[in-house]
Design a protein that fits this description.
The chain is of the alpha/beta class. Helix content is 23%, strand content 26%. It has a single domain, classed as Alpha-Beta Barrel (TIM Barrel). The chain has three helices and six strands, in the order βββαβαββα. The strands form two sheets. Strands 3-4-5-6 form a four-stranded mixed beta sheet. Strands 1-2 form a two-stranded antiparallel sheet. β5 and β6 form a beta hairpin.
Length: 111
C-alpha cells in the first residue's frame, strides 16, 4: 500500500486526482471491477469513473466494493456505443436500450 499523498490546493480549491474513463474485463479492459478499484486506490485516485460499453452492472459492482473497502469514489457510467459513435454521458442512471433512437435514449436530468 502506498503512503497517503498530501492534498494539493490551487486557488483555494482542493485538486482531485480522477480517472473519468475506465473499463473492466466486462468490455475491453483487463481487470475485474474489484481489481480496478484496488488499482485506483494504489494509484492514489480520489475518484474513478467505470464506464463500460452499454452496461452499468460492472460499475455498480465497483461502487459497492469501493464503499465496502473505503476505496475511491466510484462514478457509475456507461459508454454508449453504436456503429456511428461512442459517447460517455454525465449523470447517466439507466442503461440505454439497443434499437432506440438516440433522442429517446438521451434524456438526462438537469442539475
Amino acid at each position: 500500500m502506498l503512503p497517503e499523498r498530501p492534498a494539493t490546493y490551487r486557488g483555494g480549491y482542493r485538486v482531485l486526482e480522477v480517472d473519468l474513463h475506465a473499463h473492466t474485463r466486462f468490455s475491453d479492459g483487463f481487470l475485474s471491477p474489484f481489481d480496478l478499484v484496488l488499482q485506483a486506490r494504489r494509484r492514489g485516485l480520489d475518484a474513478l469513473a467505470i464506464t463500460e460499453h452499454n452496461i452499468l452492472f460492472p460499475a455498480q459492482l465497483g461502487r459497492w466494493f469501493s464503499r465496502l473497502t473505503s476505496g475511491p469514489t466510484i462514478l457509475v457510467g456507461e459508454e454508449v456505443t453504436t456503429r456511428r459513435f461512442h459517447v460517455t454521458p454525465a449523470r447517466h442512471w439507466k442503461e440505454v436500450q439497443r434499437g432506440r433512437r438516440r433522442r429517446e435514449s438521451a434524456s438526462f436530468p438537469n442539475p
